[in-house]
Amino acid sequence: MSLSRKDIQKERMWHYFINAASETIDEVGISQVRARTVAERAGFTTSTIYNYFREFSHVIFFAAMRYTKPYIEQLPQYMDQGTNTLEKWLYSWECFCKESFKHPQIYSHIFISNLKQVPEDLLDHYYRMYKHELVGLPDQVQSIVLQHTLSTRSSLYIQHAVDEGFIRHEDIPYITETTLLIWKGMLTDILNQRKPYSQTEAMRKTLHLVHKTIMNIVPVDKHQEVNVQFNI
């Protein structure tokens, strides 16, 4: 189905503003991006932004999503290191921590900040515009990437560990919520300069707690089947 002239114009304007926002983030950092700067770089007035976006934070969200490309590209390789669901799940956390602690403000804006709209709707719109970023990803990995809520991402994937006898179905909410809080707490501490951790230290401590959380749930006789060697 071909796009209408109006839809083509809208998509073109979105690209103008998102490109301008991405360039501004590269220059001054995401926390210093302002609507006026982005509008001027795109060649329009600030008010024009709101003809195409409900909130300026949505422009930043779409621009920030471009920084997740390394995570998306590397995720399948990380997960391939695992021989069962839990190992693959833990390696996916390693990939996520590596990229999120490298760009804490970016990932905070995507996964923590108030966007004043259902994030899944924004994410769906983003991947409709940038379908090429999902090309080549296994279906199972796509289902993870297309879920904005991290706890939902975890539960969608880790539920396969129930069939493998590593966890019970009723353990899933505890695992996903606890590991998400661990990551959010570490990221918030770094952003607020509460902890003087380097990227590597933050990654190591977070993965240690995530690993410990899951192993406290796994039956002792299954521990030997979960052998993960993080590359940190």
Can you give a write-up of this model?
The chain has 2 domains: 5-53, Arc Repressor Mutant, subunit A; 67-225. The protein has helices at residues 5-28, 35-42, 46-49, 56-65, 69-79, 85-102, 104-111, 119-129, 139-145, 150-158, 160-163, 172-191, 199-215. It is built from 13 helices and no strands. Helix 1 packs across helix 4 (56-65), helix 6 packs antiparallel against helix 13 and helix 10 runs antiparallel to helix 12 (172-191). The radius of gyration is 19 Å and the shape is elongated. The model has no long low-confidence stretch (mean pLDDT 86). The protein is mainly α and 232 residues long. Helices cover 65% and strands 0% of the residues.
Summarize the structure.
The chain is mainly α. It contains 13 helices and no strands.
Order of helices and strands: HHHHHHHHHHHHH
Percent in helix: 55-70%
Helix count from the secondary structure assignment: 13
| Structural class computed from helices and strand pairing | mainly alpha
What value does the Rg take, in angstroms? 19 Å
Number of domains: 2
- Major β-sheet profile: none
Q: Report how far the terminal alpha carbons are from each other.
A: 47 Å
Low-confidence stretches are: none
Mean pLDDT over the full residue set: 86
General form: elongated
